[in-house]
Amino acid sequence: MGDSFVQWKGEGHDEPRNNANLSELKLLSKLSTLEIGFPNLEDIKLSGINVKMIWPNQHIESHLYIEKLTTLIVDGCGNLNYLFTSSIVGSLAQLKTLEICECKSMEEVIIAEGEGEMMSKMLFPKLHSLKLKGLPRIVWFPNLEELYIMHMHRLEMIWCDELLADSFSRLKVLQVQYGKQLLKIFPSKLLGRFLQNLELLVVKNCDSVEEVFDLRALVRVSEAPVVERSQLRTLDIRDLPNLKQVWNMDPHGILSFYNLPA
């Protein structure tokens, strides 16, 4: 294989390829850092390698190598703590498919490089397929304040019920539009957490949504009533043909929307 991947081509091919299987990297047992340097690369699959990072965040020029990337699959990379830095995400505007599976050490998909740094508002604008599996240590975007989910027609749920404590804890803006299979907006067990900071909620053109707020988990059995105080200031719900109810219980005495205009 030699000492360098410069101008690497697949074996048996006379012309440069737009995708490459990096399975032979398994043989490099001491490899700790992998720098991708293929300017026309469209597909990457990393499987069972022990790297700690894929793109060194100090090399701005490395961002140019992934601008055409449409598919990224990362499977069984046990030493990865994160996948992207905040500075590199903007270079992934063409990404359509993202799969992250069996990465036991991964804690965040995207990390902020500077303290207090804001994430891009449009993360992966062309993404239509997202698969996440076997990530037991993941904390979902603890510093994210704005989240826009649009045209994700196969998405049935946005969050699972088992998110770790810091996941999405600072979210202030959530817009969900054009989700044909989406059944509900919030997991019932985590509704109180999301509403602590959420100020704007927009849900539009989601054909399968039947209710927006599931209040059942906020009812505390055998305890004195506790009213959750929502920070929600704007609620925009429209074009939901199967909507049966905004909330499935009377919110009085359970949830306060005191910031919503009358």
Automatic annotation (TrEMBL):
Pfam families reported for this sequence: LRR_RPS2
Keyword DNA repair assigned: no
Source taxon at top rank: Eukaryota
UniProtKB keywords: Plant defense
InterPro entries: At4g27190-like_LRR, LRR_dom_sf, Plant_NBS-LRR
Record carries keyword Ligase: no
Cross-referenced PANTHER family: AAA+ ATPASE DOMAIN-CONTAINING PROTEIN, NB-ARC DOMAIN-CONTAINING PROTEIN-RELATED
Name the UniProt record assigns to this protein: Disease resistance protein At4g27190-like leucine-rich repeats domain-containing protein
Organism of provenance: Hevea brasiliensis
